[in-house]
What we know:
This protein is α+β, with helices and mostly antiparallel strands. Helix content is 41%, strand content 27%.
Amino acid sequence: MTINKTSHCGTMQQGFTLAEAMMATVVLGIAAAGVLLPFTSGAAVRAEGMHRTLGAKLAADLVEQIISTPFDQIIPTYNGYTESHVQVRDAAGVPFTDPKYANFSRNVSCQYVTVPQQTPREKQQCNFILITVRVYYSGKQIDAITRLVSK
C-alpha cells in the first residue's frame, strides 16, 4: 500500500510504512524457506546415499579379504575383528586418510555352522564358516554383509 504524505513544505512523498516493509520481509522469508527446503533435504539424502555406498564398499572389501584367507585361519584371525573410525584400513592394511572415511567403523563375527544337507559325520568336521561384516557410520549401522564360506 502506498501512502501519500504531504511534508511540511507542501510536496507529496511516497513510500512504505515500517509495518508494510516488515510484512514484505516476512512474506519474502516464508517464500524463500519454501523454495530452499527441498534443496537442503535433498543434500541430506545425497549424503546418506554416499555413506551407504561407501559402507557397502568397505563391507565388500573386507569380506573379500577374509575369504582370501586360508579356511583354518579365518576364525582365529577375524572373529571379533574391529576397526574404529580412525583405523579403517584398505586391503593392504593402510589406514584410509581421505576425510570421507573419517566416521566409518566396522567389525566382523565368524562362526562355524552346519547346513541341513550335511550328514552327521560331515557336521562334526566344521566345513562351513558364517562370516558377518558390519559397517557403521557415526555409530549407526549402515550396512552388513553375511557370507557362507566352505572348506
